[in-house]
Amino acid sequence: MIKVVLIGQGNVASHLATAFDAATNIEIEKVNSRHLKNIPKADVTIIAVSDDAISSVSNLLNASAGLIVHTSGTVPMNDMHQQRKGVFYPLQSFTKGAIVDFSNIPFCLEATNNNDLELLELVAKSIGEKSYHITSNQRKKLHLAAVFVNNFTNHMYQIGKDICDEHQVPFEILHPLIEETSKKITNISPKEAQTGPAKRNDQQTIKNHLEQLNSQQQEIYKLITQSIQEN
Amino acid sequence: MIKVVLIGQGNVASHLATAFDAATNIEIEKVNSRHLKNIPKADVTIIAVSDDAISSVSNLLNASAGLIVHTSGTVPMNDMHQQRKGVFYPLQSFTKGAIVDFSNIPFCLEATNNNDLELLELVAKSIGEKSYHITSNQRKKLHLAAVFVNNFTNHMYQIGKDICDEHQVPFEILHPLIEETSKKITNISPKEAQTGPAKRNDQQTIKNHLEQLNSQQQEIYKLITQSIQEN
């Protein structure tokens, strides 16, 4: 049995708490970060608070907290000053209220030594399936890559929807294509999966498309078309 | 029983042929577009050839071909000159050899009169579930929107993978996030679904991210960030 203390009240904390509650080899105790007085002893203490608060919360903990980890995608491990520290970062975008299936969420783990890394792997395996040893620098790169594949991709969806709305076309017609595009790259690389007028260098279609867009959409269309052709 | 003649040898033609073969209310006959002499009589003749060839193939057909439709996302219906004509466009990106589940693919239908539109709906329903009445102009807009949600989204995946590869991070860590992002917009609009540093106007993170990118990636990052903030 691994004793886990979970500090925090936000989305990540509440989703983790639900998952740990159901795990057979974890004894979980939840602590509100605003009442950090008698912090229980633990094998692992997980600080699931906002990025800005991680350092100050960690400063309130001592050796009885065991291995101290945060759950952030961006804060370096060494922003905490304990000897036994690490990172326990579930890479997913958590929505309040939505049910989270951790079996499909990868955990990015980091620690200062192999014993602690193995302990984090046990904790991750108790609620999920996949975990990766990722350094603070690699985690920083993952977070950056996630902006492209999540936030920027979502903006491509928004422009697609704007074009549909403007012409009374139901955006849902594009849902299956969106799903297919997202699935394809789990089998072949995005570079191999690329199709379309930019890839084919179909100048006539590119010209036709540009004529139908507003100026900001045109800039985006031109720049991404160029990037597809040069990469 | 609806008699369908299918002209073409490409991906769309072969996927449609497989689906029609399994449909109980369709009698399907396949014709090679290079041997267009004795074209059989039909209720519906589907021209599933390359965009460039649609007009010339349609010119070889007469009234015995019944309702003549093409399967293109971009060619206007009126590029064909028969009286009874239409469009039967399955909106998906077809990969050779891959199995296609038409039950999940929307058909965009167009015809010159309601009777022919209803006939196309029957044909679509025989192999799929969803069909939409879409004009040639709307289809043109759908095709444009598809470039954003498919080709440009795929390029966002490629940039994400490039960043991962450069730092020896397995791109597969991002697969669940990619899937989640694509699913989210089937429940809420992309605008509502947007998160991240651009949406939050988190200048410090944006600055950090830009410093980690090459010049082309920087241009894309800046332009999409600006577009997210202004839309």
Q: What does this protein structure show overall?
A:
- The structure is a homodimer of 231-residue chains.
- Chain A is an alpha/beta fold.
- The first copy, chain A, folds into 2 domains: 2-134, Rossmann fold; 139-230, ProC-like, C-terminal domain (N-(1-d-carboxylethyl)-l-norvaline Dehydrogenase, domain 2), CATH 1.10.1040.
- The first copy, chain A, contains 9 helices and 7 strands.
- A 7-stranded mixed β-sheet of chain A has the order 2-1-3-4-5-6-7.
- In chain A, strand 3, helix 2 and strand 4 form a beta-alpha-beta unit.
- The N and C termini of chain A lie far apart (50 Å).
- The mean pLDDT of chain A is 94.
List keywords for this structure.
Rossmann fold; 231 residues; 7-stranded mixed beta sheet; 9 helices; N-(1-d-carboxylethyl)-l-norvaline Dehydrogenase, domain 2; homodimer
Strands of chain A, total number: 7
Provide the gyration radius of chain A in Å: 22 Å
CATH class of the largest domain in chain A: Alpha Beta
Biggest sheet of chain A, strands in spatial order? 2-1-3-4-5-6-7
- Chain-averaged pLDDT of chain A: 94
Q: What is the CATH architecture descriptor of the largest domain in chain A?
A: 3-Layer(aba) Sandwich
Distance between the termini of chain A: 50 Å
How many helices of chain A? The count is 9
Which class do the helix and strand fractions of chain A yield? alpha/beta
CATH-defined topology of the largest domain in chain A: Rossmann fold
